[in-house]
Amino acid sequence: MVIFDDAKRNSADNDIYLSENRFEQPKEIFKSICSIIKNHNFTEKINICDVGCATGEFLYYFKSIFSQCSVTGLDVSKPMLDIAKKMIPDGNFLLANINSEQPLPRNSFDIITMTGVLGIFDDPQLAITNCLTAIKKNGIVIITNPFNTYPIDTLARYRRSDKSESAWEIGWNIHSCHTIEKIVKDTTSDAKLTWHDFQLPFPIKQKSDFMRAWTAKIENNNHALINGACQILDMKILEIYQ
After folding, report:
1. Is residue 134 part of a domain?
2. Residue 148 phi/psi, 5° resolution?
């Protein structure tokens, strides 16, 4: 299985990340991830790998918070990795697929992050297993994505009906917390899991691309994330540590 089931998904991501410079405006989710990492009080130089690093925006921000760190990024897009290398000259960047057989060396990283990637996979098991086997003892894996608190997994395909000969696209699968916990426990029985809810502190306007999430007021959440596929995105940060 490959990260992108068709080339259109890769092209769609390239269109976003290659046309926008967001290095000086870090995402709120990046700030939340770094706050979680700070709680672990790493005393030595941190060795971190960001899976699905795109142009390296998160690693760029991470280095501004943790100056004593060694960063590695993994992605399937060479054009995006080329930008990451320019922005972080001392970083190590791998053109590889986390959903293939062991793309990362075992027991190599203190931290592995994977943000907005898991929803691409119909079956998330291999990607999660690869992350867990690549961290050192006492390391942590942080996975961020929309998850379902009910024990229901949803596979999503969408097509842009306003465009002729539009292909079916992927990227918005929503796996249940139950499924993810089972995969983690089957991989490493002594792992501890903590789920962190994530809510944006400000609104995001709808864009011309209806599959780029925006916010709306829903029940007690003034800034709930939704997309053009009529999905309400319950964004969570999963922290896995041993």
Report:
1. yes
2. -105, 125
Q: Is residue 83 assigned to a domain? A: yes
Domain that holds residue 78: 7-203+236-241
Check pLDDT > 80 for residue 207. yes
Q: Is 56 left (phi over 0), alpha (psi -120 to 50) or beta?
A: left
Between CA 123 and CA 83, with CA 120 as vertex, the angle to 5 degrees is: 135
Strand partners, 232: 226
Average pLDDT for residues 35-53, to the nearest whole number?
A: 94
The pLDDT, as a whole number, for residue 8 is 45
Cβ-contact 222, 164 below 8 angstroms: no
Total domains in the fold of the chain: 1
Other residues' Cβ atoms within 10 Å of the Cβ of residue 7? 9
Task: Note whether residue 227 is domain-resident.
Answer: no
Per the CB < 8 A criterion, the answer to whether 72 and 93 are in contact is: yes
Q: Is residue 69 part of a domain?
A: yes
Q: Which amino acid is at 7?
A: A
Supply the CATH number for residue 195's domain: 3.40.50.150
Measured CA to CA, the distance from residue 95 to residue 52 in angstroms comes to: 10
pLDDT digits (tens, 9 = 90+) for 119-142: 999 999 999 999 999 999 999 999
Alpha-carbon distance 72 to 49, whole Å? 5
CA distance 51 to 54: 9
